[in-house]
């Protein structure tokens, strides 16, 4: 025998017991030496056994043999709880489970009939039978039936014990009543009917059907109803494309006409009114929606988040939405909000965003009070089998690392599926923790109904072809139990097909009418009203009040002495020169007192990556925290400032989702360095910059991305300004690259107070945070507002004598000033907002200078990066000729890796721009 991750702990305990009481160890373990096994710390963690049962009554203890049998019975009970899932019949296609040998009495050196001599009280399970043999028979039914449970990874013994008691009491395993059976069969009939109708009518068109996992829809309805009974009032739902059309129809209530209109390509004509009719739109299996869903006499507000083909990337977005509902007061607490995430089996195991999202589940700034996860496990990833797509036994094994309970259930057993739903709901609302349901089914057709799956999985699809659908199987069950007649079952099927045919008739009639008239309704494209930049300055007296408040802490609170002195200097700097962190604090303080909620998260954002913010203070003696800006005055708006985990995809997705619900809040996500946003690029591409055009989602999220070339190497110089400018179109975002704290102050306030919602991308500085020339005055903060272009006031010659004008954006402006002669004759204009390009403002700034003067764009980024490619056509149109360029040549890497090389090249481009060489 060998000791491995499954049996090492058990073997170790038996060996120790053998040292105390000879005759306990089964023959299979006789002579085994634990020193020959790997050290326990090198093995997977196994939960400790429960406390031993109390001593048997004297009448029950007749011999040492009985004690040995009782010990083995106890070990078998624990084996079922730990490894019963390995023998569970969870595969609807009937492939044999691996079944662990510890579940077999023979493995322990006894026969099953010997266990009849052990009373059930010896293992504390009298409610499951009179003796250990009967108890094990019941445990076989419970743990090795159509549901398998993985609980040993759970860290909290109280939660595990609660689940064990719940499972073994069978409170969730109830046969369906006539009403529930009828409802479930009707949903299955509708699900199958819609999929079959689409398959037959629109052969070859993509729909990513749910067939093989049909029970997903009744389970979702059961989760919604169960959540409603436990006090929830809002459900946020995220899923990929498989099964989405059925969820839209049978959970969200989207009409059959609307869905068929998509297949008839009539959605643009105004048929599919539940979908966005502005922007670019999206394919039918990506859209979301919002609906009031009634289930079990409870009505809940259900939101299905739209999702691109990036599968699991919607996960953090949904969690952010759910958390925002609590933050904005839509729901009072986490018990009123339930997030549900539907995962794919291959993507749950394969995509890193899943792990990043699961890591948020117990973090105070991100927790949602428990998320329900369903893995729609069709045992296939496109054409890739599990053995080729993951290194774990189950698709759900990633959840074990986060100590989440996992329930595996056979998708062809409706009653088992609904039992899993009841358990998941009760556990979530009992403990406020995440739980995972692994819904094991199959995929009836190819990945997108146009594929031929038998090319790559001939054996699996030979079995699937002859496998009865779950509706057919369940119909036989309810008829056999006398809950419905065959006639009633047939009537359900006929009724669904009649509805679908009628819906198609409606679409056909609409097309006929359009053909006769030759006209179609105009699409209502979403346009924005002209929005003038509103004043964002604050009165001097108010700024002084805010300044005092954000630098005040309780008398019994002692900041670190060095920081205390810095903050006192900052308080006094209001009249001497306001730096970047100071201006930001004043901007946020003003918004909070004006009723605007503020949320700022990111890696090290409480202090600031560059030790410039210090909004959350730590007591030097006991480490407790105090946030002065949260205590400005009574009645101020909510504030959350939190350090995030070392994650970009999940945290950025979370904040984006948050911002779509908390529409009136200022939500800011800060990258530790701007290039860290590279890792979250899928969220930026698929949600932040295109969510409005594709799905009509409004967001005023702010991305704070440190940017600037200070010789820190390729990875900590560029926030990839060029990428955001390439993604900018149709007014979808606003991109600023400010050079003064006041400009940043006004940009934040405008973002929070403007009428239209757009994400704001801020290229934040590093060296400018404390640069003596990058300071603002109190008057700058009381002025009207943000200026998209800053003119030059320091040229020594008259404007009409200027023959060269430099345009730049961001920190390079101060490098130019440092390199330029004291009496310079070349004006330097700053484009503070590269997008939307400020053509009018720049034209006004150029107006004093001769039309023939050279216009040169200066940037420190390589020529194929930075703003040059974006601004060049705008400048050409504005000045009527080709602008000049001064900067690094095209490069594959954003910046030099050696400081000396950086300094030389930086000076070279500056001197070329200023004509000093």
Please tell me how large the radius of gyration is. 33 Å
Shape, please?
Answer: globular
Q: What is the β-strand count?
A: 21
Low-confidence stretches: 1-15, 18-48, 58-62, 268-278, 519-527
What's the CATH topology name of the largest domain?
Rossmann fold
Largest sheet entry: 8 strands, mixed
What proportion of the residues is helical, as a percent range? Answer: 25-40%
CATH architecture of the largest domain: 3-Layer(aba) Sandwich
Q: What is the top-level CATH class of the largest domain? A: Alpha Beta
Total helices: the number is 29
Q: Number of domains in the coordinates?
A: 4
CATH H-level superfamily title of the largest domain: Thiamin diphosphate (ThDP)-binding fold, Pyr/PP domains
Based on helices, strands and strand pairing, what is the structural class?
alpha/beta
For the biggest β-sheet, the strand order reads 1-7-8-6-5-2-4-3
Taking the alpha carbons of the first and last residues, their distance comes to 81 Å
Average predicted confidence as pLDDT: 88
Strand content: 5-15%
